[in-house]
Write the structure tokens for this entry.
Amino acid sequence: MEKRKILIIDDEREICLVLAEILESQGFEVKRASSAWKALNVIHEFYPDLLLLDVMMPIISGLEFLKKFREISKFKTTPVILMSAIRINARQEDYDWNEFVQKPFNLNYILACIQKCLVLK
């Protein structure tokens, strides 16, 4: 069976590394992008089954990236889990994300969110 692909987009290197290590140990294929700009290149080569997307990033925020991501037809239904240390004032229906995880997060909770999103896909 082909591994499910997860793209982690977060400017905090430590979070990317920890998440990638845990997800790889769970059998996922993982790529990381430290900015939304880099992620825009990665998505066309990697075709992720799910995104873990930080909201607060320099230059292009996670929400701005999500709008661009959803404009690409092949990614309209790709599950997205937003991550942020602060509450966001954006409506889910305006940006079309699947789950929201508050940082610092519980690893069991984020794994449960990932499984839930991938089952629905």
Summary: The mean pLDDT is 90. Residues 36 and 120 are 25 Å apart (CA to CA). The chain is about 40% helix and 20% strand.
